[in-house]
Amino acid sequence: MDRRIETAIGIMREELHRNLPMRELASEVHLSRWHFIRLFKAETSFSPKQYVLDLKMRQAEQLLDESFLSVKEIAATLGFEDRSQFSREFKKLRGCAPTAFRARRGASSRVF
Fold first, then answer.
1. Quick one: pLDDT at residue 108?
2. Nearest-angstrom CA–CA distance, 17 and 88
3. Closest-CA residue to 63 (of 14, 27, 98, 24)
C-alpha cells in the first residue's frame, strides 16, 4: 500500500473523534485533495469518507460491547454532532439501532 495512504489511515485512526476535513488530511500527506481521494480509493476500494465512517462504526461496536457509555456518549466520543445522526448512520451500516446492537450482543454473551 502507498505509504501516504498508510499515513492517512493512521491519522484517521488517531483523529476519530474529529471530523477531519479531507483537504487537511490530503495536506498532511502532501497531496491535493482530488489526488488524495483518487489514490485512497484505488488503494482501499473505499472513499476516505466511507473509510472513516467504517472505522467509527467499528469503534462504536467495540464501545457498545465493552463499555457502559451511553449511546449519546459514544456518539460524542466519535465526533458525531448528535445521537440521532449517529444512530441513523449506525442503523444504515449495521442493520440495527445501537441500542438493539448492544442488547443483542449482551444477550448472546451471557452465560446461563
1. 52
2. 18
3. 98
Q: What one-letter code names the amino acid at 3? A: R
- The contacts of residue 100 (CB under 8 Å, 6+ apart) are none
Q: Mutual orientation of helices 98-109 and 83-94 as an angle, nearest 10°?
A: 60
Ramachandran area for residue 30 (φ above 0: left; ψ -120 to 50: alpha; else beta): left
Q: Which triple of cell numbers denotes residue 93?
A: 451500516
The full set of domains in the chain, from first to last, is: 3-109 (1.10.10.60)
Q: What is the mean pLDDT of each run of 10 residues along the chain (112 residues)?
A: 96 93 95 97 96 96 95 95 94 95 70 40
Nine cell digits for residue 55 = 472505522
C-alpha cell at 94: 449495521
Please measure the distance between the N-terminal and C-terminal CA atoms of the chain and give it in whole angstroms.
46
